[in-house]
Structure formats: C-alpha cells, structure tokens
Write the structure tokens for this entry.
Amino acid sequence: MPSHLLLAWMGRTDLKAAAGDPDAGVGPIAQGVQAGTYDTIHLLSDFPVAETKSYVKWLASRTGAAIHLHSVKLTSPTNFGEIYERVVEVLEAVDRRGTQLTYHLSPGTPAMASVWILLAKTTHPARLIQSSPQAGVQETDIPFDIAAEFIPKLLRQSDEQLTSLAQGTPGEGAEFSSIIHRSAVMKRVIAQARRIAIRSIPVLIEGESGTGKELMARAIHKASPRADKPFISVNCGAIPSELVESEFFGHKKGSFTGAIADRKGHFERADGGTIFLDEIGELPKAIQVKLLRTLQESEVTPVGFSEPKKIDVRVVAATNRTLIKEVAEGHFREDLFYRLAVAIIKLPPLRERAGDISLLIDALLQHVNDAAKGLGIKHKKISVSAKNLMLQHPWPGNIRELLNTLQRAAVWSDDEAIGLEAVKEAILLSPKVLPGNDGILNRPVEPGLELEALMAEVARHYIERTLAHTRNNKTQAAKLLGFGNYQTFTNWMNRYGVAQ
C-alpha cells in the first residue's frame, strides 16, 4: 500500500484557528487533514517560527500523522519564482518512492495555489484538494493541462494573467516575446526552450551567424529560476588566447605581468546566474580542459590561487558551427561537448522560417525608426514592392543582415517610404548567393572534391527541410520530394543519417 503525503502552505487563517479565533473555524489545513487519511504532512511556512511551532503542536493533537515543518523565507507571499523554488526544494528532499502526493490548494495565497497546480500538472504529479467551511473538502479536477514550457511565465504573472496563460494565451510580458516569430519551426524551438529553461541544465545553442543565439540565451535565463541573478555574456572568440584563463576564472594580484589587482573571472561574476559562452568552438584546447573541470566540479581556481572557489553557474553555450563535427575532426573535446550538450537548441536560418520575415521587417523597421529619431532621419515606412524584394532575398546573414539592410535603406532613402531602388542598393550580395556560387555547384575540380559527399549534403539538407516543413510527417515529405512511397523516403533518411 502506498503511503499518503499531504503538502500545504500554512495560511493566516490556520494560525487564527490555532489561536482560538471562532471566525476561522479549524482552518483549511486541519479541515483537509480530518477529511483524509494521511501518513505524513509537510507544512511550508513563512511565518515566525514561534507561531508555526505552536500551530504544529495544535494540529498534532488532531491527527496521528507525522508532521514535518519547513520554515522558509520569502520576500513576498506572491513572489511566484521564490514560491516555486522553495516548494521544489521541499519536494526534492522528501522521499516520494511508493507515495501518493496530495497538494492542498486552499491555505496560503493564490500564488501558492497556482504553483501547486503547476507542479501537479507537470514535473511533480499529485492529487489536488481544496476546502471551505461551506463546501467542505473536495478533490479538485483541473480541466486543463498546463504545459511545462509555460511554467516560467506563469511564475511571474498576476492571478488574472495566470488564468489566461493556463488557457493557452501567453501574456504580453512573456520572456520569449522578444523573439519575433509565427512560423511552425520557431514555435517548436521556443517550446523546447521553455521546457529547458526551468531546469538548471547546460544548454548548447547551434545556429548560423545572425540567427539570434544570444537573444535566445537571454530569454532562457529570464524564464529560469535564476532570472533575478546575473547574466554574463562572453564572446570566446574575442579573447586573446593568453588571457582566456584569467578572463574566465580570475586572477590574483601579481600572478602575471599586468595583474595589478585581484580580479574576479566571468564565472565567479555569474555565480548564482547564467554565463553565456558565445562561439564556444573558438576556445583553445588547453582552456577546454579547465572548462570541463569547472563544469564537473562546480568550482574555479583563479590564476595565482591554490584553493578552488565553489560556484553555482548555469552554462548556455552557442556556436555557428556543428560542434559534433568539430569533435569528429579533433577540434573540440568530446567529453566537454557531452557536458555542454545536455540540451541542444538548433536555431533555423531565416530562409527556413517561412512567414517570419514579414513580421521581422515590420518589427526591425520600428527599431530603426526609434534609433533614428535623434539623428534627424524621418520616420520611414516600406513600400510594397520593396518589401516583396526583401521577402525574396535568401538572407545568408540572417536577422543581423536584415536589420543592417533596413538601416542602410533608411539612411539612403530621402522619401518617407523606403522604395524598391533603396532596398536594391542596401542589399549586399554575399559571395554565397552570387550566381553559380552556391557552395555546391561550380566547386573547383581538384583533389579533395568528393562527389558522393556533396550529394549526401544535398540530400540531408532537403530531407531535413522537408521534415521541418511537414512537421515530421513522412508521408507528406515523401510526396513533396517525389518519392514513390513512404518506405523509399525512410530508406533515404537512414542512408544519409537523418534522425527519425
């Protein structure tokens, strides 16, 4: 038989009940306890210890269950992030093997009840009860599932916003709202990021230059329990190799020429928060070894010090390369790759985000107009023909190229509306998009040219794109690519190593 555990926040009404206030009755907790059969009761309280201990003694006289008190500190009884963290700490400390969990929604604040609902429907499933003097104790059947990716937003919204989010309508202040999108591929990426954000696991973001990797990293940080802690961004490719260790881990005064004072490294500055390691593939091999130890041991040893310092840092790394290929070619340590790539987010290039470009043009043009106010540049609109041209451009530089193009077009255009000619002049043709130079065709015929590898590259590219377009519907993908049947398409996927 499973043991039955009841968990609840202690509320003001419960304390009044223990103090003999006739208006409080027995209070929500005691009412719930008396209506059920529980082996163990875990109570969380932010009230003074003397009051809570007095309440536990009072409640113990009404039940034979073992009562465990968890005194916690909250800056506010409506701070969703803190409530979530404290509850999870208690749940992780409780032995839940062979147990039936029940969360009592009625004691405490609405924010506390909301967190119980979130946990019951996602990471820590449980039975929910609520009580009132009029209706008694009832099991609560929530008529909706709150998906795990919404948790970070839910923990920081008002009660009204919580309701709308639970119904699937995210609020205006959502942490991922800065990522402009409506394409199916980006919706899937953001759903993945939301799920990842709430767990303090390392994240590797892969994507071409200009796809918004740092923006995604910041959104993950804001949606995490570490949101109020530092976010430190480091461009690994911009640090001279001889200074990387000092920049990452800090140094002691006099430990090398130029070390005129003790200095904290980026990891120590990010303690409690998130460190974003952009272009992680640029790190020298020697630093990769030390970074691996930092991730394994959760500690750093500044240059010139002999004793390590403990740190608590979440690592989000990013690269415009395919890091597993770098591992295969010997440029990146395999053990460090697997330590960083606990969760991987692949940001699609702009050319694969059908439907997003028009939205991005409008949003980025607004940014350009806001920035141009102080430069005496007129507020700009974009003509239909100019926008159509931009929609047809492949954008090899992705969102960064799109923004720069709009900035140039706005500066060069004298009219209120940015016209077709202004956009033509503003678009810089990359060598990648010049006629006959697409990276596949017209390669020089010389030693090292491998036709079979080129054909495999093309096959993988179109198979993956088509699967993304059809939301992994292989039957539709087979039809789009001209295969006679589903099985032939599956054989091609297996031949070219496309994950099913």
